Amino acid sequence: MRVFNPAFVGVADDELVVLAQSGDNSAFAELIERHTSTCKRLALSILHDVSDAEDEVQNACWKAFEHLAQFQKDAKFSTWLSRIVVNQCLMR
User: Fold this and answer.
1) CA nearest neighbour of 28 among 78, 70, 65, 79
2) Average pLDDT over residues 42-57
3) pTM here?
4) Burial 53-80 (b: 16+ CB within 10 A, else e)
5) Residue 34: CB atoms within 10 Å
């Protein structure tokens, strides 16, 4: 697991979700940083345009932030975020 913020070394995604849901924006930023490259590859595979893919990943990240309280932890955060990316790309 790649860690972008030294404060989160050894902190799993599910722990970051709990922190983010309690208002820790740096925890949410860490989650996004960990999964952005995968989301960009996914979006590019659907849209076939780098700029459009980056736009939709950004939109998906914003939606994830807006709806983080609704994430129920049934799945991994990365799966949930990927589904948002796919939906954004398909709506485009």
Assistant:
1) 65
2) 98
3) 0.91
4) bbbbbbbbbeebeeeeeeeeeeeebeeb
5) 20
